[in-house]
Amino acid sequence: MNFASDNTSGVHPRIMAALAAANDGHPPSYGADALTQAAQDRLREVFEAPGAAVHFVATGTAANALALSQFAPPWGKIYCHASAHIQTSESNAPEFLTGGAKLVALPGEDGRIAPATLAQALHENGRDSVNSGVNSVLSLTNATEWGTVYSPLELAELSARAHAAGLAVHLDGSRLANAIAAQNAAPAAMTWRAGVDVLTLGATKCGCMGVEAVVTFDPDRAAGLGYRRKRAGHLLSKHRYLSAQILAWLDGGLWLDLARHANDMAARLGQGLAALEGVRLNAPVQSNGVFATLPREIFARARAAGAAFAVWPGDQFDDGKGPVPVRLICSWDTRADEVDGFLSVLRAG
Fold it and tell me: Three-state DSSP class for 204?
């Protein structure tokens, strides 16, 4: 009963097989191999963006920080939600790789930024100046850190406001597959058609061993990104192992099948929790995350049974007495019987 994180899940067998196949021979290094070219082309095809610049890295932190460094100068301001991963969980990697750009954290219900909130923040921060810096990037997360999902229309409205103010739009898509599956939308509709300028596409949480892609939809705006990646130490010499994962992940729509399964398991879990007396859902279940407050006795029962999940937003908020807010994440390999078994434990009292 492990709902700690989709980072704890294993590698899908088809992706593991692709890694084994990539282990044959001695192809060129540093991304000059045929697998990397094929993976880049396949990503462009899936996103209907034939001219996009595609750069692979091994971690989401590297992907986000490098993407932001391309669009925000050291004196820039990056607007994001207060719960965004770049704000809460990537140390100061964005500030480091941008050379000092400032993150401006915005509030928003269920992990989403409302257009009015963005407008107010831009108004309060004023125009670009040597005193206040330069408004540079709006960073959105989809699916959000609260498991909620922006629709294409919501993304488009936020992007339009950002562009009108001279900001580029970055999308942290560490769980974009889950968001696309939830919306049953085309990848293009959830990204560049909605105004996204640069995407960090995550595969690690969705069945891969470790690979993310920085996709810059206007290739002219990616000039120099390859140098940034190398300078930051994120150009893997045996690049084919990253590319092999992406090819297998996208093949036949596997990435969306895996995301859809994780979403379905979260919906099953959320429905079961909502039916328990005293349990409150803290956010709509729209992707693969369930956020709920458990009565202390149910929380203790789950822990005693060995169930793994996170106190949310952090263990420091658990006073050891009252109800406990928790986060439960379903993965591509979460089983229905695992969900049902966990719910049975919670009902046991």
Answer: helix
Determine the topology of domain 255-347 in CATH: Aspartate Aminotransferase, domain 1 (3.90.1150)
Q: How far apart are CA 149 and CA 287, in angstroms?
A: 7
Q: Are 256 and 181 in contact (CB under 8 A)?
A: yes
Measured between alpha carbons, how far is 209 from 269 in angstroms, rounded to an integer? 25
Q: H or E element: which one contains 345? A: helix 336-347
CB environment 276-286: b (16+ within 10 A), e (fewer): eeebeeebebb
CATH 3.40.640.10: does it fit domain 13-253? yes
0.85 exceeded by the pTM? yes
Q: Name the DSSP class of 101.
A: P
Q: Is the dihedral of CA 18, 212, 43, 146 positive or negative?
A: positive
Closest by alpha carbon to 216, among 36, 31, 34, 51?
51
Strand partners, 249: none
Q: For residue range 166-184, list pLDDT tens digits in order.
A: 999 999 999 999 999 999 9
What is the three-state SS of 106-151?
Answer: ECCHHHCCCHHHHHHHHHHHCCCECCCEEEEEEEEECCCCCCCCCC
